[in-house]
Write a structure and sequence with these properties.
The structure is a single chain. With 677 residues, the chain is of the alpha+beta class. It has a domain of 230 residues: PPM-type phosphatase domain (Phosphatase 2c, domain 1), CATH 3.60.40.10. Strands 2, 3, 4, 5, 8 and 9 form a 6-stranded antiparallel β-sheet that branches. Helix 9 runs parallel beside helix 11. The N terminus is likely disordered.
């Protein structure tokens, strides 16, 4: 695929943004073009793994030079958050802008504005993106930074390109090219030629597109810039593919691949593999398509390339599907969906409206069909969850029994047996990883929660691979939403089994039996848990249970029914943060088995937020004195962040805990959920 190019503030040209196969099935090319273009025009950083802890250390150390601190917060925004949480990237870029403004560092102010513009562009808000980019352009004009002016002109052109204004795009690209020519800056000229070639390609003028890209290639060859050369090869391959000249496209893709391998550019290698794999897929050479895609996904997952992983998994899905490998195809399809959900939506408002009208009739039909199929779907989901839980328990028991027998009978063997044991331990870890996937499937999916709740966050950080904490959300027939957050005894595998059993009980009690009064749900859950675990007076070893907070919210009237076992909830609003306590005893045999659970009825105001949390956050040791974080500090934190957007609240909770914990071991699973009404 064609890749847009740009030049760094401090370096002559560092990398091509990753190419992506234009013919890969169901790709969102608008998002792809925007990300690949902007990352090259604005900040050409070397493709290395960023150490956020190290960067935060520099930023928080006021003894460091202002230049180093500005560079650190810039890299935090760009490398750490831009393509995962662009709203947070905007926040950190604003921190860079405020410090640069106080120092009178206009060059850094312009750099921060470019990051803020990117964050809005990634989210599809081109109007705000243009506002910040034009503001940065004005600063560069004030300080007569010709190089900076050229880059910002290119940025504006890229935004117009993604809005479909191709003539305007060419105009801005031409202005940028004129400045680069005046500066005799060949790398900028080469990048401009290739970007203009992209525009001509979008207009269908493949001959003119090829001419401009070949101009860029010639300059890169003069400069012996292998990254630029390999990127141009990829562009030429894409054009020949669109012209139907598959053989020539393959030749240029191979050239690009070989050069990426020569310079060790793993990102470029992965994208070259995908480009070649997509052609093999069209030729129905599924064996070669799988080889290419597997190479690409191995690299992408190793260095954390979400978009490349999404593309490679989709390519593997099609190849496996056509070669009669349904299990592998399903695995790749699930990975594709996961990666797609991780990418920021970049459709514009106009495109969303168009899509809404386009599918209006289908939606109406789907609603009619969904009503008829509702009970069947719910039944199938319950059976699937029960089956997953049964598999997890069976696998865990078999593994424990097998390896206990193995270790007992092989204890006296030599180093050779030790190696075998290490291999088996790896298999156990892999099995626990599989158990984690099963546990994740038992949790309410974020896609489902998005349908029920408009404004929320979930901060979930298990201590081990599997967790004893869990969350659960369900919508009742009367438009009420039930939300549960629980902390089972133990963590790791034992806690994970308890959490899956507890989730299953909630489904059975509320969905199957129709018990929705929150205190009655807890009492029924306690009775069934005691019965399921065979808990009695003479059996002191089965005193497992859980702490849980359960709320039922009337979304229209903002009325809340609340019951809890050993848990509290926190309501933040105009009056600050209020702690609402539940019953002190937990769910289980040894925790007030004869006592009824109480119910509290609360009235919320518009904008109020309910926070539910397990004890993992407040009980974590850290700070200078290695003491617990504590509930008073937690309440102060809730009051501080109460007006912030929910995504930003989650970010503050994460960074606060990371700073508090430092190098101290995490003691328990951490789970915090916030819902704004």
């Amino acid at each position: 695929m064609a890749s847009a190019l740009c030049i760094d503030d401090t370096q002559i040209y560092k990398k091509l943004c990753k190419p992506f196969p234009r013919n890969c099935i169901h790709l969102n090319m608008l998002r792809l073009t925007l990300i690949s273009s902007l990352c090259l025009w604005l900040t050409m950083a070397v493709a290395v793994a960023v150490n956020l802890d190290s960067l935060w250390g520099v930023w928080n150390d006021t003894s460091q030079t202002d230049t180093k601190r500005l560079s650190a917060i810039h890299d935090i925004a760009w490398e750490g958050y831009m393509f995962s949480r662009p709203d947070s990237a905007f926040y950190y870029a604003n921190m860079q802008y405020r410090l640069a403004e106080n120092l009178g560092n206009k060059e850094s102010m312009a750099s921060a504005l470019s990051l803020q513009g990117i964050s809005f562009a990634i989210r599809g808000n081109y109007e705000q993106a243009l506002f910040y980019i034009e503001k940065g352009l004005k600063i560069n004009e004030e300080i007569a930074d010709s190089m900076g002016i050229a880059k910002f002109l290119g940025n504006i052109g890229l935004i117009y390109f993604n809005q479909g204004s191709l003539e305007l795009t060419l105009s801005f690209y031409q202005k940028a090219l004129n400045i680069f020519e005046e500066l005799e800056y060949k790398r900028g000229m080469a990048a401009s030629y290739i970007n203009m070639g992209d525009v001509y390609k979008a207009q269908g003028d493949l001959l003119q597109a090829l001419s401009f890209i070949e101009k860029g290639l010639k300059l890169f060859e003069e400069l012996r810039d292998k990254r630029g050369i390999s990127g141009a090869y990829s562009n030429i391959g894409a054009i020949n593919k669109e012209k139907g000249n598959t053989a020539l496209a393959m030749e240029y893709y191979e050239k690009s691949k070989n050069m990426q391998e020569e310079i060790g550019n793993k990102q470029g290698m992965a994208d070259s593999y995908i480009s070649l794999g997509s052609i093999y897929l069209e030729q129905r050479n599924f064996t070669q398509a799988i080889i290419m895609a597997e190479k690409a996904i191995a690299i992408a997952q190793n260095i954390g390339l979400i978009t490349t992983t999404k593309s490679a998994s989709e390519l593997l899905y099609e190849a496996y599907k056509n070669t009669g490998k349904p299990v592998k195809a399903l695995t790749m399809h699930e990975l594709y969906i996961k990666m797609a959900d991780s990418l920021t939506r970049m459709e514009t408002k106009e495109a969303a409206i168009k899509l809404e009208y386009q599918h209006q009739f289908e939606k109406e039909q789907a609603l009619a069909d969904a009503k008829h199929q509702k009970e069947m779907v719910l039944s199938a989901e319950r059976e699937k969850r029960q089956q997953l839980i049964s598999y997890a328990i069976a696998i865990g028991l078999v593994l424990v029994l097998f390896f206990a027998f193995f270790i007992y009978n092989r204890f006296q063997l030599t180093k050779k047996q030790k190696k075998v044991i290490e291999q088996k331990n790896q298999q156990i870890t892999e099995s626990i990883q599989y158990a984690k996937r099963i546990q994740d499937a038992s949790l309410t999916s974020l896609k489902t929660i998005d349908k029920y709740l408009d404004d929320y966050f979930i901060y979930f950080k298990p201590k081990d691979i599997v967790s004893g904490d869990f969350y659960w959300v369900h919508k009742l027939e009367d438009e009420k939403i039930m939300i549960a957050l629980a902390d089972c005894t133990g963590h790791g595998v034992p806690g994970g089994f308890m959490s899956m059993m507890s989730t299953s009980l909630l489904n059975e009690i509320i969905i199957d039996k129709g018990i929705t009064q929150v205190n009655k749900v807890l009492e029924t859950m306690r009775n069934q848990l005691i019965q399921a675990l065979h808990q009695r007076e003479d059996n002191v070893e089965t005193r497992d249970g859980l702490d849980i907070a359960l709320i039922s919210v009337d979304m229209k009237q903002r009325k809340v029914d609340f019951a809890a076992a050993g848990h509290k909830i926190y309501i933040t609003g105009k009056q600050g943060c209020e702690e609402i306590k539940g019953d002190y005893f937990s769910v289980g045999y040894s925790f007030g088995k004869e006592k009824p659970f109480s119910i509290k009825q609360l009235q919320l105001e518009e904008g109020d937020t309910i926070h539910l949390t397990s004890d993992g956050y407040v009980d974590q040791f850290g700070g200078d004195n290695r003491k617990k974080f504590g509930r008073p500090t937690f309440i102060q934190l809730m009051a501080f962040i109460k007006t912030m957007p929910m995504k930003e609240q989650k970010t503050i909770l994460e960074t606060t805990m990371a700073k508090w914990k430092g190098d101290t071991e995490q003691l328990d699973d951490i789970l915090v959920m916030g819902v704004r009404f």
